[in-house]
Amino acid sequence: MTVMRSVTGVILRNVLGFAAVSLLIILISFLPLAVKVMPHQVAQDAITTNWTQYFKSVWSYFVEIAHGDFGALRVKMTWIRGYMTPELNAQILSYVMGMASRSAQILMSAVVIGTVWGVLCGAVQFFLPSWAKNFLGGVNQLVFALPDLLVILLLQLLVLKTNVLFGHYILGVADFGANQIFALPMLCIAVPVSAMVYRYMVNACREALSQEYVRTARAKGLPEHRVFIKYVMRPALDSILAVLPKVVAFAASGLVIVERLLNIKGVTWWFQARANVPELAKLLATILMCLAAFVIVVNLISSLLRLWVNPALRK
């Protein structure tokens, strides 16, 4: 009963949190509609506010989303090469969901692979000789210090050189037409994520190793690997799961750069839309809610896993 109550509480908190964050995103995204600037050639520009129009636009957005569309949306998209037609306008939400699904596949795969790799490297380094520890730490320091843009360009160059070396197409470097890539954008996000998680893992393991119960277990003659797995890994994994939503937010910020450089039509592609302010507010709110949904889902999963890893949280 205690476990079910804890699980229900976690789910309820995340659902309410997503609802609150979504409402805040919508209210902030539509704020430009409340401000009107009237330019003047001689005197200072006049700035007025129209809160009636603001709340009317917000309510209209809720109604249109409930109907499954964006209402009247006149926006020029680079990938459509023209303005939205009525037929495309009726399918605008399905376009958003399709793009969000593509972004979610890349982002979540990168977070999972990067997190697992970072945890494994962080744990294994405690059993390596000094020179291997220094080498692994130096590589992590280098990757962590490099800007995301440079990491993406270096990985693109590596893929190009690999294709040339083997003399045939192995991995794609960008989306072209119906040819969609997955491995490269996933790696571009997973590499910085693994470097970040590696640091968290090493620090968490060091903190756990300094605890009294670890010294007691060693004094009882338990093998080192058993002490590490039972008394160090569990609290370290709890610490990793606690910061996992922050890791996802970090990865989502890199997703914007990855999709732009690799020509991927994901959810952040809407940032490239040429739109008037009302349409831009609708698109921006939808984009940010999709990104918030990614973080909330990971936060929900990590919270449930923490209940399993750390029994003290079930009370």
TrEMBL record:
Q: Can you supply a Gene Ontology BP term from the record?
A: transmembrane transport
Q: Which residues form the ABC transmembrane type-1 domain?
A: 100-302
The membrane-topology field of this record reads: Multi-pass membrane protein
Membrane-spanning residues:
15-35, 106-128, 140-160, 181-201, 240-262, 283-309
Q: Identify the species of origin.
A: Tumebacillus flagellatus
Q: At the top level of its lineage, which domain of life is listed?
A: Bacteria
Main localization, broad class: membrane
By sequence similarity, the record places it as follows: Belongs to the binding-protein-dependent transport system permease family.
Q: How is this protein annotated for GO cellular component?
A: plasma membrane
Its localization reads: Cell membrane
| UniProt xrefs under InterPro entries | MetI-like (IPR000515), MetI-like_sf (IPR035906)
Q: Recite the UniProt keywords alphabetically.
A: Cell membrane, Membrane, Transmembrane, Transmembrane helix, Transport
Protein name according to UniProt: ABC transmembrane type-1 domain-containing protein
